[in-house]
Write a structure and sequence with these properties.
mainly alpha, 9 helices, single chain
C-alpha cells in the first residue's frame, strides 16, 4: 500500500488526502466545544503542565519540529490590533495568548491522536522548510512576516499544503475554545474574547474525556 507521507514536498503529485482528514472523527471537537463557556474568571479550574512537561516543551521550542510549528501557529493567528463590538480599540487574541503550541503539544503527546495525523503534522514541517529554502534560501522561522505569508499562501495552493494548514487551524480553534484542562485557553481568555457563555462544570486534569473510564465516555466515543 502506498504511504501518504512519502512525498518530498507539499507539491508532490502523488499526495493523497489522508483518511483521518477525509473521515475526521468530530466526537472530540463536539465534546470539547460543548464545554466552552465564560463567566467570572474564578470559576475556571486552574491548570498548567507540570514542571517537567513545561521544561520539556520550552526546550523543544528551540529546535524543529516545534520551532517551526510554533512559528506557523503564531503566524496563522498573530497579535494585531482590532475593534471589538463596542467599536473601541482592543488587542486581538493570538495563538500565543491561547497557548496554541502547548495545546498542540498535548495533542501530540498526551491525547489519543491518530499516529497518521501526528506523522502528517511533523512531515509538513520538513516540507515547509524545504519550500522556504528553495524559495527564500532560509528556514521558515528566519523569514519576516511578509515572506512567511507568501510561503503559506503558496503551499495553500496544493492539496497537501491546504490539508496541513487546515489541520493546524483546527487546533488553533480548539485551543481557543477548550477548557483550560486541555492545555489551551488559559483562564478562559478565548471565551472572554468571543463573549461566549457555555457549559459548566468544567473538567479538571484527571477528568478529561480521554482519562474517563470506558463506561463513563459519551455514547459512540471510541
Amino acid at each position: 500500500m502506498t504511504t501518504l507521507f512519502s512525498g518530498k514536498s507539499f507539491f508532490d503529485e502523488s499526495y493523497q488526502t489522508p483518511e483521518f482528514i477525509k473521515n475526521k472523527n468530530l466526537t472530540r471537537r463536539r465534546l470539547l466545544k460543548s464545554a466552552a463557556g465564560v463567566g467570572a474568571a474564578s470559576v475556571f479550574p486552574a491548570f498548567s503542565f507540570n514542571a517537567d512537561v513545561q521544561k520539556a516543551l520550552s526546550s523543544l521550542l528551540n529546535s524543529d519540529p516545534w520551532l517551526t510549528l510554533n512559528a506557523t501557529l503564531e503566524h496563522l493567528l498573530p497579535e494585531s490590533p482590532t475593534t471589538n463590538s463596542n467599536n473601541t480599540t482592543a488587542q486581538d487574541i493570538s495563538a500565543k495568548q491561547i497557548n496554541a503550541t502547548a495545546y498542540l503539544y498535548q495533542i501530540m503527546t498526551i491525547q489519543p491522536t491518530e499516529q497518521a495525523e501526528k506523522d502528517f503534522i511533523l512531515k509538513g514541517v520538513g516540507w515547509l522548510n524545504g519550500y522556504a529554502q528553495s524559495e527564500k534560501k532560509q528556514s521558515f522561522v528566519e523569514l519576516g512576516f511578509t515572506e512567511k505569508e507568501q510561503l503559506l499562501k503558496g503551499i495553500n495552493q496544493s492539496r497537501a499544503g491546504q490539508n496541513w494548514l487546515n489541520t493546524l487551524l483546527g487546533y488553533i480553534f480548539e485551543a481557543m475554545l477548550t477548557p483550560a484542562a486541555y492545555g489551551g485557553n488559559p483562564k478562559g481568555i478565548g471565551w472572554q474574547w468571543l463573549e461566549h457563555q457555555g457549559g459548566f462544570p468544567l473538567p479538571e486534569k484527571g477528568q478529561r474525556y480521554f482519562e474517563l473510564p470506558p463506561r463513563a465516555k459519551p455514547q459512540g466515543h471510541k
